[in-house]
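Pipeline run #58 for the internal structure catalog. This entry was flagged by the ingest filter as a single-chain record with no existing model, so it goes straight to prediction. Upstream metadata was stripped on purpose; only the residue string is passed forward. Reviewer on rotation: M.T. Logging verbosity set to normal.
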Amino acid sequence: MAEPDAAAGQPKKSGSLMTIIGVVVLTLLGAGGGWAVGTIVAPNIKGAKDAELAKDTEAKKKAEEGLARISTEENNVVQLEPITSNLAYPSENWVRLEVALLFNGPPDVKISEDIHQDILAYIRTVSLQQIEGPRGFQYLKDDLQERVDLRSKGRVSKVMFRTFVIE
C-alpha cells in the first residue's frame, strides 16, 4: 500500500515541474517577441510622428494665411476685434469671443464698431447658466444675430463665430 502512494507522488512533482518550465519558456518567448516587434515597429512610429508634426505645422501656416484672406472687403467680411468680458453671474467667469460679420453690400466700419460695442454690452448681461451646453450656445448665437440685425438695419446678413471660450 505504501508503494502506490509513492508512485502517485512522483507524477505530481514532475507535473508541477513541467508547468513551471512551460511558464518560463512562454515568458521568454513573449519577452523575445515583444522586443522583436518593438525594434521593428518603433522606428516606423517615430517617423510617422515626425511626418504628422510637419503636416500640422504646415496646416497651421496655411490656416493663418487663410484667415487673413477671408476677412477682406472683397468678400464683404469684417473681422471684429476680440471681445473679452466677465459674465453677469458668476462674475469671476470670463468670456472671450471673436466674431466676423458678413455684410450684404460693402462693409461699413462705423456699423461694425457699433455692433462690436453692442455685443460687448450684451455679453456682460449674460449668465453662465444661459449659455451652457449646445442649446445655450445656439440661443446666444440667435440673440446676437437678432441684435446685429436691429443695429445694422439688415445690412449684415450673418454673424460668424470664430472663437468662443469661457474661463
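catalog note: The first strand starts at residue 77 and ends at 79.
catalog note: The chain has a mean pLDDT of 83.
status: ready for reviewer M.T.
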